[in-house]
């Protein structure tokens, strides 16, 4: 609606200005043409009786020239003609044009001036010079009323004004029809477009007619239906992808639980032997009351220890919905290390960690524990007896590798470094590909690093890898830091 009014207003303004300019130039052109014609007529009449006027002047003097001019004026009544002499003592010597300009007049270039009479009517005065024996005897004055010119100017002004008013009325009608036929329909299209931008694909726009705007409305409705269908398909695909990822992560978690079970069996063996021995002593009735009480306390302590180990393993194996919370990831890393110490001890690998300041970030603790567990398990498998695996936590300012133009920000880093076999250069590009593994058949499925990479990516972080064959590997997890 606004666009229609602006376009029509600009168009009308241009037409009105051109019409007014055309009317003004037409009046001026006609006026100048009128004056040129009158000047040519005056010069023609002056030349017509110039010789006769010279003879009359020589024979009868000033009075003879006056009589001849009067007689000539009676025969040409379309203009008022009189004699103007250069003699100051004659009553007809006065002219309405300055003497300096009057003296410049020639038969080819007459002197002219526009004045008003006593009634206020404009008149055009033309002075044709009469020279006798190289001296200026006088002038023939032709007085032309400009009433017709003024009337023509008024009529032209009225007509131009009427045309302009008609144009304005047509413009108003065009604006009204434009608002009804174009503006309101475009408003519906704009409103529909805004709803689409907000994700609302319901209520198709109704544009009546058989023109380009109605075709645009139909195309917009079709696009809205297509987007709605694609959105539903995308949501279904996204839900399926999320479900598949959760299943893969759970499968990977169960696979790790199987690996941990062997280490747990050895870890549970010692406390079970202690419990069995103490229970046998109590059953033999050879212990004093105090010794029975001490044995019972030992049994309880070892049972609590075994329950804690089994609870940690069950907690790790249990499927949980993703749920991020702000916490210190140092606690998550400590839990994973405690869970993996039996496996490391079984393979004669030293698992160490360093104390650090609190590292607060928003994560899903179960998922981050799965990532740390996968990295440490891979490090244990790559290590030889007597090697050391070092888990460290620190803060570092960095930019994501996928967006080097992003500003620096602080990240919480979890680093797992081993002294194992390392990773070959040709395997590095495929390290996070699903089902890619460098382990022997039966030792790995190739899902651990792929699942870990997806989890960290969901947390808006990344995993950096440094490795050299024969010297070990270093996996560093970057997670965005949060205010404490």
Automatic annotation (TrEMBL):
Its main location: membrane. SMART domains: HAMP, HATPase_c, HisKA. It catalyses: ATP + protein L-histidine = ADP + protein N-phospho-L-histidine. It is found in: Membrane. The chain crosses the membrane at residues 7-27, 162-182. GO terms for molecular function: phosphorelay sensor kinase activity. Residues 213-240 form a coiled coil. The keyword Membrane applies. Keywords: Coiled coil, Kinase, Membrane, Phosphoprotein, Transferase, Transmembrane, Transmembrane helix. Residues 180-232 form the HAMP domain. Pfam families: HAMP (PF00672), HATPase_c (PF02518), HisKA (PF00512). Its EC number is 2.7.13.3. Signal peptide: none annotated. CDD domains: HAMP (cd06225), HisKA (cd00082). It is an enzyme of class 2 (transferase). The keyword Phosphoprotein applies. Residues 263-483 form the Histidine kinase domain. This is histidine kinase.
């Amino acid at each position: 609606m606004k666009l229609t009014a602006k376009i029509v207003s600009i168009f009308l303004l241009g037409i009105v200005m051109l019409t007014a300019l055309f009317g003004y130039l037409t009046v001026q052109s006609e006026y100048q043409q009128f004056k040129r014609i009158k000047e040519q007529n005056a010069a023609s009449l002056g030349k017509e009786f110039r010789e006769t006027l010279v003879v009359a002047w020589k024979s009868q003097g000033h009075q003879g020239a006056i009589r001849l001019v009067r007689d000539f004026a009676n025969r040409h009544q379309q203009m008022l003609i009189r004699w103007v002499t250069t003699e100051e003592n004659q009553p007809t010597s006065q002219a309405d044009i300055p003497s300096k300009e009057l003296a410049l007049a020639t038969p080819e270039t007459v002197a002219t001036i526009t004045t008003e009479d006593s009634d206020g009517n404009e008149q055009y005065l033309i002075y044709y010079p009469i020279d006798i024996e190289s001296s200026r005897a006088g002038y023939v004055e032709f007085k032309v009323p400009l009433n017709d010119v003024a009337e023509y100017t008024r009529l032209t002004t009225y007509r131009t004004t009427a045309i302009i008013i008609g144009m304005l009325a047509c413009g108003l009608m065009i604006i009204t029809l434009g608002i009804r036929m174009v503006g309101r329909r475009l408003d519906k299209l704009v409103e529909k477009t805004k709803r689409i931008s907000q994700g609302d694909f319901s209520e198709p726009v109704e544009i009546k007619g058989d023109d380009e705007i109605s075709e645009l409305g139909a195309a917009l409705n079709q696009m809205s239906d297509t987007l709605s269908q694609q959105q539903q398909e995308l949501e279904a695909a996204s839900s399926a992808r999320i479900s598949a990822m959760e299943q893969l992560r759970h499968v990977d978690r169960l696979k790790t639980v199987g690996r941990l079970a062997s280490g747990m069996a050895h870890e549970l063996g010692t406390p079970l032997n202690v419990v069995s021995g103490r229970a046998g002593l109590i059953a033999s009735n050879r212990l004093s009351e105090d010794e029975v009480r001490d044995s019972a306390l030992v049994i309880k302590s070892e049972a609590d220890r075994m329950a804690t180990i089994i609870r940690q393993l069950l907690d790790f194996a249990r499927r949980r919905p993703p749920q991020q919370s702000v916490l210190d990831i140092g606690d998550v890393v400590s839990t994973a290390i405690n869970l993996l110490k039996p496996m490391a001890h079984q393979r004669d690998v030293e698992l160490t960690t360093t104390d650090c300041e609190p590292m607060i970030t928003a994560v899903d603790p179960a998922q981050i524990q799965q990532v740390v567990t996968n990295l440490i398990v891979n490090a244990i498998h790559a290590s030889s007896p007597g090697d050391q695996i070092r888990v460290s936590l620190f803060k570092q300012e960095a930019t994501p590798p996928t967006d080097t133009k992003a500003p620096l920000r602080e990240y919480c880093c979890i680093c797992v470094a081993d002294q194992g076999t390392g990773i070959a250069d040709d395997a590095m590009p495929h390290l996070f590909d699903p089902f890619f593994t460098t382990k022997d058949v039966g030792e790995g499925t190739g899902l651990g690093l792929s699942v870990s990479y997806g989890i960290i990516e969901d947390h808006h972080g990344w995993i950096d890898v440094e490795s050299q064959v024969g010297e070990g590997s270093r996996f560093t997890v970057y997670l965005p830091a949060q205010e404490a």
